Amino acid sequence: MKANSVSLDHGVRGHPAKNSTAAKLAGIVSRRWLSYVGLFVVMALGIGLDLGLAWYMMQITDTAVLKEKKAFIDLIVIGLCILLLSVTVNFFDSYLKSKVSNTLRNDLRIMTFHHMLRLPSSYFDKSHSGELLTRLTSDNQAIGQALGNTLMMLIRSPVMAVFSFIYLLSIYWPLAVVCGFIGPLTLLVGKVFGKALRENGKNVQDLVGKSTGFLQDVLSGNAVVKAFQLEQKFYGKYKAYSGRILARETKAGTLNATMQAASNGIGVSSFIIAFVLGAYFVINGKMTIGALIAFIQLLNHVTWPFTGLAGLWGSLQNALGSADRIFEVLEQRVEHTRLPESAANKEDERFVTLELDGLGFGYDDGKKMIENLSFTVEAGQMIALVGPSGAGKTTLFKLLLGLYRPTSGQIRLNGQATASMGLDRLRGFFSLVPQETYLFSGTFRENIADGRADATDEEILAAAKHAHAYDFIMKLPEGLDTEIGERGVKLSGGQKQRIAIARALLRNAPVLLLDEATAALDNKSEHLIQSALEKLMTGRTTFVIAHRLSTVQRADRILVMDNGQLAESGTHDELLAAKGLYSRLYHMQFKTQAEELG
Ligand code: ADP
Hints:
Helix content is about 65%, strand content about 10%. With about 600 residues, it is α/β, with parallel strands linked by helices. Strands 6-7-8-3-9-10 form a 6-stranded mixed sheet, with helices on both faces. It has a 4-stranded antiparallel sheet with strand order 2-1-4-5, covered by helices on one side.
């Protein structure tokens, strides 16, 4: 890790933090303390320069009034020095602010993604991916800005105001006292509007998140949109979303404008009062003209910070709304303490015995999906899972993979309870071909290589050949290096499935989970792949969820699931003879296929 990189752990793992959002943000900001030290040094120099400029204006005016030529020459040199310093300080001020803001945005982005990658499946069931996306994009942007310019200005303004006020007192205290009462009034304005702005800001971000999720659905499902002629419907829906965002933004605009106007009114009135009173004191000989000019310049620093503070406070509140949304993710309970390594293919665990002992499970809605499921699979066996749709077959795969925790009972792999095993180790046992093929944007090579990080080109090609994907890949001009498009849009269902099979073959884990792995293939391709899979299944424990007769018939044992329970188990012949659910399913579902296959 580089010296300036930060720890990715947010420190709050799994328990909603009691600290305020600001305190949590402070924790993140503190990791970049060195940059802030630089910013504070620049700020101190800037404040000194601003005060120096007021002094300079007083000196040069009084010198002109008194016609002191020698002092005038000295003041020209001092003026040049002030200019030079001011340009330098300005550069570093802007540079460091954008640096700290970009670095913190980067820190937060990777921290949030790192956390997201460790969140359990149940969290993703509840949250739309598009909505989660906005937390990494627009929320992240808002926070970055706030932690750079906004934060520094919020700190600088009151400090500058205090120093300017002290200087004002030294010039002519009665005038300073009168004006000094007015500036801080704007703080009250900020307090009144701040909360409303923050809540509104959070609402805007929530709406942006929802509409982004909606957009993502519509854009990636554009074929269905066209086929079902949903354009009008979705256009109306998006207009409604967009209108609600606009209404919220308009409200924020109104709140901001009112707040700014109130602060500005207070600022301007203090100026007018200062001018009128100042002129009166000059007429009465209590102040020089130079002192009045310095006074007005300094007053600018006493009132402007407060005036500007209201706007800054508003954008800080907005950013805190965004921070709330990011911390909501960062405080979710994670399933991994660190990112797992790809850990398949352990030679010493080739032969895996799998036992299910009184397994029970329900999703968050509390409904029991799997009840008291017990069976043992000997190492190297091929097991077929059949049953009506919704019986819980895929859910069982998810439990095996540790995507969800069983509510009762145990799963044991080679005698060891999976609950006492790290998730990395547990998932290392399995190679999955999911029901819904999911590929990532990138090339064929990259997608197959997702099966195993250290795979060689030969191994990738061998996996593609076994999955009968080699021929169609090689027909493309760029072969393995062809881009597959977003989630494989450029491929047919069967082609995608073959890539998913190649990926699983390459992973080469001891237990193979095939969830309708050949459902999208035609009979011929299925037959070819089946023989490849069978080679792979030897010496490996395999679970197959399939409707196709050919696969199921060859299984060492068929487990028939119904309503989350084991209804029957046995070989094809035994189950047919038993004339139970399997036999009924067989006659209903597999008969036609059996006839097709002859
Ligand atoms: P099968 O693979 O046997 O067709 P599944 O295991 O996919 O069945 O689903 C079993 C039941 O679990 C279904 O009724 C489905 O609605 C429900 N289910 C699946 N996934 C979830 C989820 N993430 N949250 C809530 N219910 C779910």
